[in-house]
Amino acid sequence: MTQTTESPDAGESEVLSFDLTGRPWIQVVRSNGSQEELSLRQVFEQAGELRRVLGDLATQEFALIRLLLAVAHDALDGPGDIEEWAELWEDPNCFAPVQAYLEEHRERFDLLHPVTPFLQTAGLRTAKGEVFSLNRIVADVPAGEPFFSARMPDVGWLTFAEAARWVVHVHAYDTSGIKTGMVGDDRVKGGKVYPLGTGWAGGLGGVFVEGDTLRETLLLNLVAADTEELDFSPDDRPAWRREPCRPGSDGRLATGPRDLYTWQSRRVRLHHDTDGVHGVVLGYGDPLAWRNMHRHEPMTAWRRSPAQEKKLGQSPVYLPLEHDPARSAWRGIAALLADRLEDTGGAEAPSRLRPRILEWVARLVTEGHVPRRFLVRARTVGVKYGTQQSVIDEVVDDRLVMPVVLLHGQDPTYARQAIAAAEDADRAVRVLGDLAADLARATGAEQEGPKSAARAEGFDALDHPYRGWLSAMAEASDPFEHRHTWQRQVRETVGRLGDRLIAAAGDAAWEGRIHTDTKGGTHWLNAGLADVWFRGRLARALGDPGSPGAPGSGEGAAVPADDGPPGPGPAGLPETDHAATDPEVHA
């Protein structure tokens, strides 16, 4: 597992080595479904035969993909423009230069090197010489309480391959909180360093594009340097081409994607013996503000922050748009397609920016390097932290298969209909939740529980159909008619769920009770009236898909005026205020 050499230092008989360029450590899935571990050399050599990288967590996979992209960008020194990218796409051996590059920098890829260990700080120590449990870097055992069951209740030992993967991950996703100070770090107060934020990727709503093979995945995310929406600096380079990190921080700013993909947000030192790793020293490294980094970081959507604009007295200010674990990727499709669809008249900056990685794929489509009917998988990965970002609560992992025509720069019609279709589902599911609340009111029961349960069931019932409908858009000649097909499907599905709720309401709901509405009026509310209100609301939410004035007909028509019975049910549906209601928008 390890190589040994004679040590030049007195007091040690041998120096261990674990060369990541030649030793297997990255988990992969082959095209035939089998799994194994490969070295960096093997990953690039066999990328066309591999389906994907496999992480212990989705966040680890995201961090490893970014590491591989940093290697590819640096080894190829580009691509410089879209023509160079097209040549790489057509060349089965496009990653051949990576082999010489890895050989040149092999010493910096040694996990156990005595002077420049991979992504670590040699000699890192606390004032008391403490060595911490590996729980501090293994994210499926958060400090304090194990949220995942893979390694309960403690991590006592890791193979060198496992440790290497978690070292990559800790720089990207480590929690915040108070950490033990390191000798040489001038931020230490009373033996501690106070919270400086999570790892860089922890603040992102991570997005990357998956192809059919790992080769396609790496190339589709390999953004050319002439991309207008991103800034590429001649000084942009990954961590292993910089001076080894010392304790503390030098306060520098990121230079571009290669730098951000390998950003050293922590200072780490593994403690090991000949068999594996048994402890770690972990402290804060280089903090980095997420504010207005949209021209450097391509793998997240961005949102304008009015609060930050007011505080800083500048505009616009963009922050990463993080993922909501309770919201499937298809429900947040607007964030993936957003900024090119906003008509600001050129006077106002967009409220959202879609991930620049998707902007890059849109360019490939618009300039004809990828066919309009090509299907891509937008992979969304992220973390929800809890208790002042000191623990990991949830990991977000989802995929959305969509035709690249949705990303076409000059033809936004398909994208607009895809977003509107997701809004159809959202309106219809809200109507279903209102039905559940009305049925609960009819019996005098608590409303929020039934309402939430009904909405969850509604979104679950529409999840698979929407994904299928979106994929089928690749073959749709008329996006408006395709949208109408979806509206009919939503109406049938949600109507059927409503029928079930009414049938299960029970005698008390059919008998009903006196209800006082928001205007002080009273009426008898029972399951029969709740049913009538439900049908009216659903009709207004989706309209008649065949009528030119129906919601989403492409004419921008308003929701038809209500002509149903009085009371809370018939009140016209409010216009959707996405900034106020979208769970993905975080302060």
How would you summarize this macromolecular structure in one to three sentences?
It is built from 16 helices and 17 strands. With 587 residues, it is α+β, with helices and mostly antiparallel strands.
Mind explaining what this structure looks like?
Helices cover 34% and strands 15% of the residues. The protein is α+β, with helices and mostly antiparallel strands and 587 residues long. It has a domain at 435-581: Topoisomerase I, Chain A, domain 4. The strands form seven sheets. A three-stranded antiparallel beta sheet has the order 4-3-5. Strands 8-14-15 form a three-stranded antiparallel beta sheet. Strands 12-11-13 form a three-stranded antiparallel beta sheet. Helix 2 (58-76) packs across helix 4 (97-104) and helix 13 (479-503) runs antiparallel to helix 15. The longest helix is centred in the last third of the chain and has 31 residues, at 413-443. The chain is globular and about 85 Å long.
